[in-house]
Design a protein that fits this description.
single chain; alpha+beta; Creatine Amidinohydrolase, Chain A, domain 1; Creatine Amidinohydrolase; six-stranded mixed beta sheet; five-stranded antiparallel beta sheet; elongated
């Protein structure tokens, strides 16, 4: 019996993932892959310890651990888990899994350039190429085991309206309200940090933004960014006090045993003006139109077109960003992406967050977001909190 403080990923889950990834590697002409990014290691090896996972297109993989070996051995169900004292050992280790040359995949969407150059020097017999798209497509289709954890993350978010009724009050800052909601999430089992794959993106629970704060643009390719606490963390909640009668956008990611779900609800302290009510109802119209269209075989780009058509000529749709939804799982920005150019069709077992929002510069934003599971004949809504515009 392996001893670990954390729940381990079942061996059959890891084996099934590796089989699908190896099949994808072989079909794309790769001889194998070298996996080093922490989230991908969790997905394929069951541990996030510092390691190199060697995956031949055919044959048994090996996990070579730099730090910390005993913990990796306890967490990973792989047969071959061995210490790696130096990167000079990589060529021999690759040979031990049948890789002595050929086309070797790396996660070049996330591997730093310095690391890539180092691998190039140490592995002159290999042609290094990007396999990240293959692995992301494998990760996009969730198993029932993964869906159980995603449902747990979504269930957390069902309590947001009652938490808002308990804690929100005029005069408190966005950061103070965020702290109350984050405390509730943490007590419900939330892990805290939210993993992004995209470079220079990070998230801690999500965003709590009121009035004009929700319309403050920033560097991330999202409809709502916010001012943040300072110039070094220039996204999310700020020190601004919340005022009565302004929209409060609560965009939070639930997290359960590593897996995420995403939800946005709009609140106010007292009545909202008719303009905001109109925009919020428009967001719900967009959501209904996309949900009716979503099913296996439909391209994500088609769903973006449906959303844009449903939004019509109302100003502020998605704050000018050309996407209306995104996949999630161990990371918050997985496939599929509901945006132009993403034409690989939906499949059963995929999940996506659909988040129609309207942003009015200098004034604020409203919107709604639900997480959905793609079924054989449509989609299932996973986030179940009240969808009404909630005036507290």
């Amino acid at each position: 019996m392996r001893e670990t403080l954390c729940a381990v990923i079942p061996q059959e889950q890891i084996e099934e993932r590796l089989v699908r990834f190896q099949a994808a590697l072989g079909a794309a002409g790769f001889d194998g892959a070298l996996i080093v990014q922490e989230t991908d290691l969790v997905y394929l090896a069951g541990t996030g310890q510092s390691a190199h996972l060697l995956v031949p297109a055919e044959g048994r993989p090996a996990l070579l651990v730099r730090k910390t070996f005993e913990r990796a051995r306890a967490e990973s169900p792989l047969e071959r888990v061995e210490p790696l004292s130096s990167l000079r050992e990589l060529p021999a280790a690759l040979a031990s899994v049948g890789l002595e040359g050929g086309r070797l995949g790396l996660e070049l969407d996330v591997v730093p350039a310095a690391s890539y150059l180092g691998y190039s020097r140490r592995l002159p017999g290999f042609g290094l190429a990007d396999c990240s798209a293959l692995l992301r497509r494998v990760r996009a289709v969730k198993s029932e085991w993964e869906l159980q954890r995603i449902r747990g993350a979504a269930e957390m978010l069902s309590h947001v309206p009652e938490w808002m009724a308990r804690h929100a009050r005029a005069g408190m800052t966005e950061l103070e309200l965020a702290a109350e909601l984050e405390r509730e999430l943490r007590l419900a089992g939330h892990q805290g940090p939210i993993r992004f794959r995209a470079f220079n993106n990070e998230l801690f629970y999500g965003s709590v933004l009121a009035g004009p704060s929700a319309a403050v643009p920033g560097s991330t390719e999202t409809p709502i960014v916010g001012p943040g606490a300072n110039v070094a963390v220039s996204k999310g909640a700020s020190h601004r006090p919340i005022e009565p009668g302004e929209p409060i956008v609560i965009d939070l990611a639930g997290a359960w045993e590593g897996y995420l779900a995403d939800q946005t609800r709009t609140f106010s302290l007292g009545p909202l003006a008719g303009l905001w009510r109109d925009r919020y109802e428009a967001a719900r119209v967009v959501m209904r139109a996309v949900v009716e269209e979503a099913r296996p075989g439909v391209a994500p780009s088609r769903l973006w077109a449906v959303a844009a058509a449903a939004a019509g000529d109302r100003p502020g749709f998605m704050g000018g960003v050309s996407f209306v939804g995104h996949g999630f799982g161990l990371e918050i920005d997985e496939l599929p992406v509901l945006a132009p150019g993403f034409d690989e069709p939906l499949e059963p077992g995929m999940v996506f967050a659909l988040e129609p929002k309207f942003v009015l510069p200098g004034e604020g934003a409203v919107g709604i977001e639900n997480s959905y599971l793609v079924l054989e004949d449509g989609v299932e809504r996973l986030t179940t909190a009240n969808e009404e515009l909630l005036e507290l």
